[in-house]
Amino acid sequence: MAIGESLSILSSILSIAASVKELMASRGATAGAAVDQLSGSDGLAREILADPDTREAVLLLAQTVISNDLLDQLTREARKCERNHIGDRKKAKGHTDKDDADIEAAQCMCSVLRDTKRYNGGSLPDSKLLNDYWKSYRCRD
């Protein structure tokens, strides 16, 4: 794919995300409902939103208050919590060690996710990964 073509697609994604934000503001729609509405339209938006990864990126852009740099950093930290959790469970010698690994991982993960919520206006960005972590680690506000 040529650079010009890539930039054109990126521009379209940013434009779609702006349209989603506009629908959210003007009609009180959720990000998901706004994306669904645009997905049902004809043309490039429908084609772009047919890809699940691109759809998730548009949702994330539309709902994100936090800066992209900080969100990227916090996402890396959450993934590190998970990697450490997996590593600690592999090294565990018994149930007590596994329980300790689970507790430590939940503290790490939930701390990172609460920070993410705090910096994003009180809610997690509409990211499947971060929301799945929240549920999986049973985080609470």
Structural class: mainly alpha
Q: Give the mean pLDDT.
A: 87
> How does the overall form come out from the CA principal axes?
elongated
Distance between the termini: 43 Å
Which ranges are low-confidence, i.e. pLDDT below 50, for 5 or more consecutive residues?
A: none
Overall number of structural domains: 2
List the total number of helices: 7
What is the share of helical residues? over 70%
Strand content: under 5%
Main β-sheet description: none
Element pattern in H and E: HHHHHHH
Cα Rg: 18 Å
Characterization of the model:
The chain is mainly α and about 140 residues long. Helix 1 (about 5-25) crosses helix 4 and helix 5 runs antiparallel to helix 6. It has helices at about 5-25, 30-40, 45-50, 50-65, 70-90, 95-120, 130-135. The termini are far apart. It has two domains: about 5-65; about 70-135.
